[in-house]
Amino acid sequence: MKKISLNALRESKLLQYAIFAAVAVIFVLLTILVTRKKPVAEKPDTVPAVVIQKPENGTLLESVTISGYVEANAMIPVVPFVSGTIKEYPARAGDFVEKDTLLAKIDDAPFRQQMLQAQAAYFAAQSTFDRINNLYKSGATTQQNYDSAKAQADASKAQYDLAKLQVDYTEVRAPVDGTILIADQAVGGIGNQTQPVAVLADLTNQVVRLKVPEKYFDLFTLERDNLKVIVTRPAEKNMYEDAVTTATIENIAPYVSPQSKNFIVVCHLDEPGDRFRPGMFVKVQVAYKTYENVPLISLKARKMDGSFYIFDENTSTVKYVEGQDFPVDENNFIVPEEYRNSYIVMDGQNFIFDGQKVRVFEEALNEAKGTDRTGE
Question: Which of 15, 65, 97, 172 has the CA that lies 20 to 30 A from 118?
Fold first, then answer.
């Protein structure tokens, strides 16, 4: 066998070490290349988009809105004065009736029989009195007999009149002009004084009784002549418009209930028309101050603290306007006069700050559409 020289053996080991080192270096480099993340490109700062709108001139009413229910100023239950079987019942809920219109007819046979009996008793007593009266005038009878016969005749006459009146009471008639609200009896039923045959109301005389919080007592009592009352009955959405009428304050309670801390205000509907009826839910707006020809903007423009932003067309930036006690109603508030012709941020105000550059929503939308077309 050939002997391997010591130098050759050393060279072979060095070569192995070199190859191993090279492989290790290559492995490390590959690992770094595979595991290294690509740097994320930083996005440029995004300019927020806002919706803007100019104020519109209009009239604003500072007011208090209180809910209530429509009532007839007078609801009249019509009850029969005699009891008996209902033979006729022409009353119908919703019908307008004039005074003395027949609402129900009770069987009058028993009462007519009583009337005939009372009539016979009266005629007999009257005949006896006439005879005693003639004898008394001629001096043939005593004063006592005369007085007794007269008393008997008078009592019989009263019984007869009452019997005739009961016959008349079998016809139940409307005591006033009005609309029948309730008519829940029927032919064959029993009419009596405990249950009305109908309930009438004058629908041209309707009111709303408001339970007003105590804190408004001075406003209603001291400013009564200056208050304007508007009554609104909300209608079904997309079907009819709300029914609206004005009202007049008819009465203000002079005291506050210690239990509820409310006081009662009665408002008379000026022109209820056909769309207001007793029992309907209404919202009553009591306006105590009127602003005319003022710049108005929707309450949506205000932030939670009452502040809002003005948009500057020249610099495309926004200006912060600190919240103040701006007059408001249910939908709008009055913009300070210096901003009458300014654009006001209506949407996006919660994501911007004073002096920030912004884009108008329409412009941002158009840019987005253009980018989409370019990308395609």
Answer: 172
Scan for tokens 């100023």, then name that residue. Answer: 73
pLDDT in tens, the chain (376 residues): 444 565 665 666 666 767 767 767 777 677 776 565 455 444 445 789 999 999 999 999 899 999 999 999 988 999 999 999 999 999 999 899 999 999 999 999 999 999 999 999 999 999 999 999 999 888 888 999 999 999 999 999 999 999 999 999 999 999 989 999 999 999 999 999 889 999 999 888 999 999 999 999 999 999 999 999 999 999 887 778 899 999 999 999 999 999 999 999 999 999 998 899 999 999 999 999 999 999 999 999 999 888 999 999 999 999 999 988 889 888 999 999 999 999 999 998 888 999 999 999 876 556 555 554 445 4
pTM exceeds 0.70, yes or no: no
Which tokens in the block code for residue 41? Answer: 């490109």
Q: Are strands 281-298 and 206-213 parallel, antiparallel or unpaired?
A: unpaired
Side-chain half-sphere exposure of 67, counting CA atoms within 13 A? 4
Query: What's the start-to-end Cα distance of the chain, in Å?
Result: 78
Record the tokens describing residue 304, joined without a space: 């939670």
* Beta-carbon-side half-sphere exposure of residue 330 (alpha carbons within 13 Å): 9
- State the DSSP string of 131-187: HHHHHHHTT-S-HHHHHHHHHHHHHHHHHHHHHHHHHHHTEEE-SSSEEEEE----T
Length of the chain: 376
Residue the block writes with tokens 């210690």: 258
